[in-house]
Amino acid sequence: MKIAPSVLALALLSHMMAMAQEKPVPTPAPVPAALHTYRLTFTLTESEAGKRVGVQHISMTSSADGNSAIAKIGSRVPIATGSYSNTDSKAVQTQMTYLDIGLSISGRLRELGYGLQVKTKIEQSSMADAPPATPADPVIRQESIETDAILTPGKPMMLGSLDIPGSTRHTDIELVVERVP
Description:
By secondary structure, this protein is mainly beta. It has one domain (29-179). The chain has one helix at residues 5-21, and strands spanning 37-48, 51-63, 65-85, 92-112, 115-127, 140-151, 157-163, 169-179. The chain has a four-stranded antiparallel beta sheet with strand order 2-1-8-7, with no helix packed on it. It has a four-stranded antiparallel beta sheet with strand order 3-4-5-6, with no helix packed on it. 9% of the residues are buried.
């Protein structure tokens, strides 16, 4: 059986037009580069009158995806915020709130072509040595540093120094970031 060239041409043209109307297959999105995990080691060196009196090392791991890694060390301290009398039982009810006292460190990493961007926040708080005017009004000492720096993995960087108010104490804060294999 012979097919006329005009029928064959018409079938081929019809097939080509049907293919042209089909939606092209989308190319898959590029796979993002694998994020690495890093160990952040903070060293807090406390001195009094120029003499080293204590060193704390706090380490945590974080991926370089921009999410925070957080470490907290301390206590929750109850603070009376008010009181009222119950008229029926004549009992005094005390309202409380709780403060986190101690050390809080957060770090957020992002890989760049020339190093690591590290955003950190270090907060330290303590009860003051001086007695409060009333037990319901404690005096809280607070120190805080927030940084945004570019680090080279494996090389320590001094993030900052704090003089502790009302004392001769001083705290130096250093950070080393190392890639975890």
